[in-house]
Amino acid sequence: MNTLLDIKGLTVAMAGLGRPILDEVSLAVHDGEAVALVGESGSGKSVTARTALGLFPGGATVSGSVVVGGTEVVAAGPGDLRRVRTSVASMIFQDPRAGVNPVRRIGDFLTEPLRRIQGRSKAEATAQALELLGAVGMPDPPRHLRQFPHELSGGMLQRVMIAYALTADPRLLLCDEPTTALDVTTQAEIMAILGRLRRDRGLGILLITHDLDLAASVCDRVYVMYAGRIMEAAPSAALTSVPRHPYTRGLLGSAPPLTGPMPRLAPIPGAPLGLAEAVSGCPFAARCAHVVPGLCDATTPTLERHGDSQVACLRAAELIDETQGEGLR
C-alpha cells in the first residue's frame, strides 16, 4: 500500500506562545484511504492539513517530517512545493465563497489552472472543466460554466471547488471541514461525492472535522487531536465502539444521537487549551473526569498501543466500554 501522506514527529512552535501549535504529531494516509482528523476548534487540525502543502505559519520553528507523495516538504524548495501543490495534493476549504473571485465566471475559474499549469488548449481546458463538473454532480455543466459564483447555492459552489481541486489530478485530497457551512442534506450529498471520487479515482482523503460521528461513518481511520497533540488513533469501528481516551469518550458523549430518544448529554467541562497557556503533563488533564493529581498533570503521555487503538493516556488500560456497563475501573 502506497503512503501518500506520512507525518512523523511534527512540531510547529512560535516564540511567545505558551505551547507548540503542533506537538509531536504523527499520522499517515494511504492510497484509496479516507482518514479523519477530529477535534475541537483550535486543536491544530487545519494547521496539520496545511503542512502537507508546505504551508507553515510565518515565523514558526518546524521540526519533524512531512512527506507527501515521496517529497519531504518541511525543507522543500519552491520547485518541489510547486510540484506537490499542482500534481500530488489539493485542498478543499470550509467556505467555498472565500476561494472564488465573485466577478469571474465559473468557466474562467476552472479552466485557468488547466491552461496555465497543465498546458491545455482553451478547447481542451473547457472540455476537461465540463467533465469535472459532471463528475461532481453538477446538473448542467455547460450552463454552470457561464455562471458567476453568486448564481450558485453554497452546496453547488462547493461542488465547483471540488472540481477545481481535481484539475490538478491529485492523489491526495485535503478536506478542511468541507461541509460545516452547509445544511445536513447538502452535507450528505457532498460527502457522497467525495466517497465516489475516492472509489473511482483511488484518492487518499484527509478529512478535517469536529464531527466525530461523521468522521467514523465515512472514514477508515480516525485521529483525535487536542491542543496540538494526537490523543487517540484507531480504526473507525474500534474508536466508536471502544473509545479509550477520556477526550474521545467526551466527544462521543456530548453528541446527540440521530435516532431514538434523546438522552441527557454530557458536555466536556471547561474550555480547550489556548495557545497562550503553558502545560505540563497531559494537556487534557484540567478537563478530565479521570485525572490523577500529581500524575496526569505532571507526566506527558505518549501514544501507546491498546487493542486496535493507539492512545496517549496514562490510564488507557483501565478504560472499559461504557456500553458494557462497566465504566472506568
TrEMBL record:
Alphabetized UniProt keyword annotations: ATP-binding, Cell inner membrane, Cell membrane, Membrane, Nucleotide-binding, Translocase, Transport
Domain ABC transporter: 7-252
Main location: membrane
Localization terms from the record: Cell membrane
Example of a GO MF term: ATP binding
Topology of this chain in the membrane: Peripheral membrane protein
Pfam families: ABC_tran (PF00005), oligo_HPY (PF08352)
Gene3D superfamilies (alphabetical): P-loop containing nucleotide triphosphate hydrolases
PROSITE patterns the record matches: ABC_TRANSPORTER_2 (PS50893)
Entry-linked InterPro entries: AAA+_ATPase, ABC_Ni/Peptide_Import, ABC_transporter-like_ATP-bd, Oligopep_ABC_C, P-loop_NTPase
SUPFAM superfamilies associated with the record: P-loop containing nucleoside triphosphate hydrolases
Annotated family: Belongs to the ABC transporter superfamily.
Database matches in PANTHER family: ATPASE AAA-TYPE CORE DOMAIN-CONTAINING PROTEIN (PTHR43297:SF14), OLIGOPEPTIDE TRANSPORT ATP-BINDING PROTEIN APPD (PTHR43297)
Protein name from the UniProt record: ABC transporter ATP-binding protein
Native source organism of the sequence: Catenulispora pinistramenti
